[in-house]
Amino acid sequence: MTAPQLVPNRPALIEFVTKHRPDLHTPDIEGALIALEQAGWTWNRIVMATAAMVCHLEEPRDLREAARNPLRKITR
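Given the sequence above, the corresponding structure tokens read:
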């Protein structure tokens, strides 16, 4: 039996974010997700970081910063 895995679906993740954070803009979110993908993050890690961004009322720029410097804790 194969372990369940998340299926990468950027449009669905963007929809989730904009549904719960209508103050955020789709191009900003998409750019941040692309930056994480290009930095080599796994889809599971991207989903978790994005959900944390939504819950902590952070911004897409915080995800971009995490892509550049994954060991730095973003605090506001």
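The mean pLDDT is 91. Try to locate this feature in the token string yourself.
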